[in-house]
Design goal:
The protein is α/β, with parallel strands linked by helices. The chain has five helices and four strands; from the N terminus they run αβαβαβαβα.
Length: 100
């Protein structure tokens, strides 16, 4: 019997797609690797379509801190704000900065 993740089960049953719209400056190699290496289906990386064109067709928006959230709210779309903090410094240097 094949084991499926909750995501796979949900997407298959409801016939939904996850569209990942990257920021123009984002390095999308890791996303492409994830999509090609995994068995997760129904995931699309769209680098070309303007976000403003995609937003009216989405059922919900998952984003990090972005004014796009306001656009989605105006369209009465549910919004999930991940509020991620991405650090490129090592834990050791962060510790030293905090202790000083």
């Amino acid at each position: 019997m094949e084991t499926k993740t909750s995501y796979e089960w949900y997407m298959e049953r409801l016939n939904k797609k996850l569209i990942i719209k990257s920021h123009p400056r984002d390095d999308v190699k890791w996303i492409l690797n994830y999509i090609s290496d995994s068995e997760v289906k129904n995931v699309i990386l769209d680098k070309n379509t303007p976000t403003e064109e995609l937003l009216p067709y989405c059922e919900a928006l998952i984003t990090t801190n972005s004014t796009l959230m306001l656009d989605a709210m105006i369209l009465k779309k549910p919004v999930i704000n991940l509020n991620l903090i991405i650090c490129t410094i090592s834990a050791n240097s962060l510790y030293k900065t905090i202790i000083k």
